[in-house]
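stuck on whats below:

***
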Amino acid sequence: MLRECELHGTFEGELCPACNSEGKFVMNGRERDQIARRMAGILRHFPEKFDLEMDINGWVSVRDLSNAIARKDKRKHWLRDRHIQAIVDTDPKGRYEIRGGNVRATYAHTVEIELDLPTDNIPELLYYPVSRDELEIHLEGGIHPGGRKWVHLSKTITNAANAGAVHHFHPAIIEIDIIQMQAAGNTVFHAGTTVYLTEMVDAQFCTQVPYDNTEYSLMLEEWGEEE
């Protein structure tokens, strides 16, 4: 569940992790998940289905968004701007951003937008998960966005492995040389907390993370325990 501490803002759980106070109830976990999924759909894929105006950089009015969700789902008649803010503030992956009364998704768009995300302080190496069957295809042909507008890269091997495991069994991980990529004139944007975006990655910047890499081996052990 989400609760709000007067001193430290919104938090997830029963007690504020900073001061151990109970805080004020905001919404339960099921409500949070339902609204977050609806936000993702609207802000990444179909704002027009909710009669929402999105600007060229992907921004939508927070007030219009909360009203539109409540209008479509009468069970969410209680939804207000502060509930949208609470979801954004507690999202661990930084999927959303609020600025000046507007909200947007930071990555995973299929709608056409122009990114104005930061391009500084990008790590020297980033990572991308692929199925083991398609590993050689990407090492030889590079990485392309497919059905998305952008290639989504991860900050760490673990981040990439977790993202890839959603779609692939024990995914292989590709390491991308960002220094060389930027030197060649390619732009990389910092989107979510551990997510970075670029138009495509040429094969010359890609190498495989060895299967015996320590960080990757730990992920294999974790997957094995879950099976």
In short: The two ends are 28 Å apart (CA to CA). The first helix runs from residue 29 to 44. The chain has a mean pLDDT of 94.
